[in-house]
Design a protein that fits this description.
The chain is mainly beta. The chain has a single domain, classed as Sandwich (Immunoglobulin-like). 0% of the residues lie in helices and 46% in strands. It contains no helices and 13 strands. It has a six-stranded antiparallel beta sheet with strand order 2-4-11-8-7-6, with no helix packed on it. Strands 1-13-5-10-9 form a five-stranded antiparallel beta sheet, with no helix packed on it. Strands 3-12 form a two-stranded antiparallel sheet.
Amino acid sequence: MCGAGLSLAQAADTPQLNLQMNNGLLSGHVNGERRIGQGRIQYYGNHLGFQVWSDANKSGAQPNSYVLLGKNNSSNKLRVRIEKKDWQPDHEGGKGIILHYGGETATFDVVIDGDQTVVADHYSLALNAAVLLP
């Protein structure tokens, strides 16, 4: 169950989720809040909103902040956050971000979570999505 008496979608009600990461190398000192990707979620059925999250390790107490580990060297780390205006961190359930909006499409951003020094590597971010059903 999700907060406020809403339930997450069943498998047949899974929304379409697309994530487009920016091209180019990201290494050295990186300023926080820099957008490195954008996601788009779509669902055409009746719903009350969307939820997006990752099963990656959390970065701190925020449910929408994650630590990505390097593919070539797992000691290499990149801290990212998923967010967008009007989306709210899921503090109650601890899973990503929630948008209370019944429209067909919404977007969100993947941003650098704070200033950090990033070692060149391959970092993967897998996201999950659900709709909030009435």
